[in-house]
Amino acid sequence: IAYTQGQEDFKGKRILISGGGTREHLDPVRFLGNPSTGKMALALAQAASDRGAIVTLVHGPIAPELLSLSPDYKLISVVSADQMEAVIMSHLVESDIIIMSAAVADVKPANYADYKLPKKELPTELKLESVTDILANLGTLKKNHQTLIGFAAQTGDIVNPALEKLKRKNLDIIVANPIDQPEAGFGTNTNQAIFIDANGQQKNINSCSKLELAHRLLDFVKIKGISPEQ
Ligand code: CTP
Ligand code: CA
Rounded to whole angstroms, how far apart are CA atoms 94 and 110? Predict the structure, then answer.
């Protein structure tokens, strides 16, 4: 088997994973969102718990058929970026590794109506506010023993924007993800990526299942020595 199965090389490590897309509601039935399905985060949670980690997955709305009935990890469901931020902050101190694979909104509607707006009342222009950058906040709060991993879903050149985000958000690793490739990105069962660490070292991962990519990412974390002391 290609994966590192049966080997509990992350035993006892606490890993906090975010996944799926957040939704920023304008009213109870309308929102700004994105096509993230949460499959990459579910694969990460599965891989990490199979390797002995104690995993918490905080996720935006995920199709029920993708969720395992009895997962080996803790699932916390949220809707908005603000809610995701609150859950992540409350789990931060105890976490050894934090992996932000969620597609978090950058903006939210400035106003929320708590009733369904009749279409006649819908604004013709939407006033937006920016959303907190959760990962950038984590980068300022990170302790030395913690490993912080971000994702950068990019089109076109993936390496330079990912490097810029790695530095700007004070990350240990960024997963540069080419979402304009047919076998990568939103909703697919496969993915491809370039892992980049804070020293600029890169590892190219060709198209493979999201589960395998998750295992390769854990291998990369381990090789960096930034995680489990055995
Ligand atoms: N992220 C976050 N909070 C946000 C936006 C992004 O924590 N409000 C995280 C994502 O989970 C991801 C990383 O930041 O791990 C990079 O997200 P990305 O959208 O690529 O970066 P941005 O800084 O938002 O830049 P842009 O959208 O302009 O490319
Ligand atoms: Ca963004």
Answer: 33
